[in-house]
Design goal:
- It comes from Glycine max.
- One of its GO terms (biological process) is dGTP catabolic process.
- GO terms for molecular function: 8-oxo-7,8-dihydrodeoxyguanosine triphosphate pyrophosphatase activity.
- The chain has a single domain, classed as Nucleoside Triphosphate Pyrophosphohydrolase (Alpha-Beta Complex), CATH 3.90.79.
- About 15% of the residues lie in helices and about 30% in strands.
- The protein contains 2 helices and 4 strands.
- It has a 4-stranded mixed sheet with strand order 3-1-2-4, with no helix packed on it.
- The longest helix has 8 residues.
């Protein structure tokens, strides 16, 4: 949904999909580019973009997937993946996720 050839000066709309991959009370987190902070990523992005962020929740059956380790399939774009307890998340967080955490959002079903 991204038009990289927009030279008209008009704003672009980009859609970001964030997936909460949950295993027990842990959540899988990763980063988009190797050795790049979220602040650096935000500065790199075009200034005339607007984002719509969609959050989705995926439950991992801990009885089926006991010791499965996430694989980094794009090592040139991602530092890696790891499971974090919801109360002990890695920082910095993706901006919209940070706002949800500060707003007392809980991705875990009751």
């Amino acid at each position: 949904m991204e038009n990289k050839n927009n030279n008209s000066g008009e704003s672009e709309l980009r859609v970001v999909v964030v997936i909460f991959l949950l295993k027990g009370r842990s959540i899988l987190l990763g980063r988009c580019r190797y050795a790049e902070s979220f602040e650096e990523c935000a500065a790199r992005e075009p200034k005339k973009c607007h984002y719509v962020t969609i959050f989705m929740r995926v439950m991992v059956d801990v009885d089926v997937v006991k010791e499965q380790v996430p694989q980094n399939l794009e090592p040139t774009k991602c530092d890696g993946w790891d499971w974090y307890e919801w109360d002990h998340l890695s920082h910095p967080l993706f901006g919209p996720l940070e706002k949800m955490v500060k707003g007392a959002f809980d991705p875990f079903p009751i």
